[in-house]
Write a structure and sequence with these properties.
This protein has 141 residues and is α/β, with parallel strands linked by helices. Helices cover 57% and strands 12% of the residues. The protein has a single domain, classed as 3-Layer(aba) Sandwich (Rossmann fold), CATH 3.40.50.1010.
């Protein structure tokens, strides 16, 4: 007999960054990372994270040792990096239902696209506006 599938969690950059760097949501991020789940991150999220680390390095806001450790944690983390493109219809529909910025709109449309084949997918984000929009779309909360 087949058991239930593990939950599928799509991490946006805000959630992954909280797992990599200590902030007010880090304990939440670590709790999610420890769950038996399929953890997904898009190449866009990956690019956003690397851009933040690069900026922190350029601006010397954190020691190189800490930044290198964050990159190692990114590589060792539970995330599977996906190359995906949200459906144009999902993007168009969301523009009428929410006032999200471009990258956030893309992430939510990507999760909605994934939900066509994986209805159990849920978005993990610590961005308030994106979280509210994801809850309204039924892919978070």
């Amino acid at each position: 007999m087949r058991g239930a599938s593990p939950p599928v969690i799509y991490w946006d950059a805000s959630a992954v960054l909280s797992a990599l760097f200590q902030d007010e949501r880090s304990s939440d991020a670590h709790a999610y990372a420890g769950r038996e789940s399929v953890h997904l991150m898009s190449t866009l999220g990956f690019a956003e994270i690397l851009a933040v680390v690069s900026r922190l390095r350029r601006e010397r806001q954190l020691a190189d040792l800490l930044l290198d450790a964050a990159l190692e944690s990114l590589d060792a983390g539970p995330w599977r990096i996906l190359r995906l493109a949200p459906l144009e219809a999902e993007i168009r529909g969301l523009t009428h239902r929410s006032a999200l910025r471009g990258a956030d709109l893309w992430h939510l449309a990507a999760v909605r696209t994934l939900a066509h084949d994986l209805p159990e997918v849920r978005m993990l984000t610590f961005d308030r506006r994106l979280h509210a929009a994801a809850c309204a779309e039924g892919v978070s909360c």
